[in-house]
Amino acid sequence: MRRADRLFALIQALRGGRLRTARYLSETLEVSERTIYRDVADLVGNGVPIDGARGVGYLLRDDYFLPPLRLSQLEKEALTWGVSFVAAHGDEAIATAARELQIKLQALDRFHMPTSRQPMVFAAKQTSSAKSDLKLLREATASRHKVLMRYQSGADCLSERIIWPLSLEHWGKVWTLTTWCETRDAFRTFRLDRIEALTCLTERFTAESGKTMADFLASLEETKRA
């Protein structure tokens, strides 16, 4: 790995607001701890806002931004695929933004790809109500607003719940929503095509311990090990 690439990878590894030890960083970048200490010192000397010390760990301040980056061909392809997917499957607002981004990327010579490598993403036509639900849930997930939902289960049982939207997932043909359900006091996952009605509430939820997406994923891992 070139030194410039290693320094960039080091900055990326320090992101996220978590303290990283030199041992963790050396294992992640596959270099010695001495190299990590030297690289951190060089970055700090060049104005990168890294806090910490040897034997404790390092933390990159949240307000640090990198200058424009050069992407590898595979990274360009990954970005193009991702934008194409959102343009095909997103709600109207974010799909429009994705299509505009596609035009901007195509206008840049460095993002040009041969036709044979251009992604082709096909999507089933969504109803206007489905797109509206997707937009509401996407925005509520980002803003942490609680949502009142009326839901039709697979057993044809209609229920009304207050949920905390944590994550939207797409499974090829079906969108699902992972939530913390206040009504059941537990994690629940719902299919968007079974939602009867949604109302975004003014009350917000906070990242309470035991009720976050990270906690949900951890519970899945525990279930696998059981």
Describe the structure.
The protein is an alpha+beta fold and 226 residues long. The chain folds into 3 domains: 3-60, Arc Repressor Mutant, subunit A; 73-117, no CATH class; 128-225, SH3 type barrels, CATH 2.30.30. Helix content is 42%, strand content 23%. It contains 7 helices and 7 strands; from the N terminus they run αααββαααβββββα. The strands form 2 sheets. A 5-stranded antiparallel sheet has the order 6-5-4-3-7. Helix 2 (22-29) packs across helix 3 (33-45) and helix 4 (73-89) runs antiparallel to helix 5. The two termini are 40 Å apart.
Q: Keywords for this structure?
A:
single chain; 226 residues; alpha+beta; Arc Repressor Mutant, subunit A; SH3 type barrels; 3 domains; five-stranded antiparallel sheet; two-stranded antiparallel ribbon; 42% helix; globular
Written as H for each helix and E for each strand, in order along the chain, the element string is HHHEEHHHEEEEEH
The shape is globular
What Rg is obtained from the alpha carbons, in whole angstroms?
22 Å
- The share of residues in helices is 40-55%
What value does the average pLDDT take? 84
The CATH class assignment of the largest domain is Mainly Beta
CATH topology of the largest domain: SH3 type barrels
Beta-strand content bin: 15-25%
- The domain tally reads 3
CATH architecture of the largest domain: Roll
